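Hypothesis: this fold can be encoded by more than one sequence.
Test: take the structure tokens below, design a sequence, compare later.
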């Protein structure tokens, strides 16, 4: 049985159906204003959906204008699905003055019924959550915030690959990013095996694709690479054993493993990848572990080993 915070998202057949986000107003024209120092992004370093926001902000230079609040990796022992700011002095977010993430959600909507999730963008003028759309938020940073990108920022959503990026992102989300959860939180055999088989089918496809391309779309990092990386970074530490995704480890895929190391060794990825938070969260909060035993492995130093990714050629 998965932990209590996903019980409402388990269908009658035992499959995991992720809740829809409720704060989805876009940035830009007729939406949320794009403005320096107006927003605070609340994240967990353990969470893949939040992690990809952090990578994008660093790559684009938007971390200069959007402040970051970080919750502790281990969920508090309270009723519901909360996160807590116990890493900060006084155990409160230093800007918002809240101890629990739920406080921000309930200040925004006293009748809010969903899980209290990260990432969550808070408007510092209104003191309300204005966006927790984990699926589309990266695209807002890439497109709506373009005028504030740093000089020589990468084009993470190049127009010539836009359609293909969107198509690949759908696959990555459905079968890999969310696929590990569909395997890990399933409460009956068939949904688990269906998710397991689809996950590794997709990883096999990407293993072949990356045999002749440094990144998913040639020699430049795109939105799709960020989305795939956050699952790969957690695979051997959490999903392989904690979520029963145990056909192979990431290190057993030569191309995916070299690709993941290539990304990790770049500052925006390395500086936002906190393996200690990942391990603590998944093994002490998000899996069945009644005795709270924290695994000693795997050895994370291997992420710094050399790779040959720069020699790969892209064939569309």
């Amino acid at each position: 049985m998965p932990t209590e915070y996903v019980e409402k998202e388990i269908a009658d057949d035992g499959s995991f159906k992720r809740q829809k986000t409720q704060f989805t107003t876009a940035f830009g024209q007729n939406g949320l204003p794009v403005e320096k120092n107006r927003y605070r992004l609340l994240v967990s370093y353990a969470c893949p959906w939040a992690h990809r926001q952090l990578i994008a902000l660093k790559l684009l230079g938007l971390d200069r204008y959007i402040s970051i609040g970080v919750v502790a990796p281990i969920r508090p022992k309270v009723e519901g699905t909360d996160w807590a700011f116990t890493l900060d002095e006084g155990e409160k977010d230093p800007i918002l003055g809240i101890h629990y993430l739920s406080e921000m959600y309930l200040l925004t909507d006293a009748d809010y019924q969903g899980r209290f999730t990260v990432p969550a963008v808070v408007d510092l003028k209104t003191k309300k959550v204005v966006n927790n759309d984990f699926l589309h938020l990266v695209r807002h940073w890439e497109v709506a915030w373009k005028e504030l990108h740093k000089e020589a920022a990468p084009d993470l959503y190049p127009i010539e690959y836009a359609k293909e990026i969107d198509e690949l992102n759908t696959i990555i989300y459905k079968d890999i990013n969310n696929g590990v959860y569909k395997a890990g939180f399933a409460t009956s055999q068939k949904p688990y095996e269906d998710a397991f088989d689809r996950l590794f089918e997709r990883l096999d496809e990407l293993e072949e694709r990356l045999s002749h391309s440094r990144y998913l779309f040639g020699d430049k990092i795109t939105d799709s690479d960020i989305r795939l990386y956050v699952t790969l970074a957690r695979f051997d530490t959490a999903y392989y054993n904690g979520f029963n995704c145990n056909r192979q480890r990431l290190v057993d895929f030569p191309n995916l493993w070299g690709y993941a190391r290539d990304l990790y060794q770049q500052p925006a990825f390395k500086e936002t990848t906190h393996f200690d938070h990942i391990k603590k969260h998944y093994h002490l909060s998000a899996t069945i572990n009644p005795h709270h035993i924290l695994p000693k492995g795997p050895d994370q130093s291997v992420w710094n080993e050399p790779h040959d990714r720069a020699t790969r050629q892209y064939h569309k």
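Strands lie at 39-43, 67-70, 120-123, 128-131. The first strand starts at residue 39 and ends at 43.
Hypothesis status: open.
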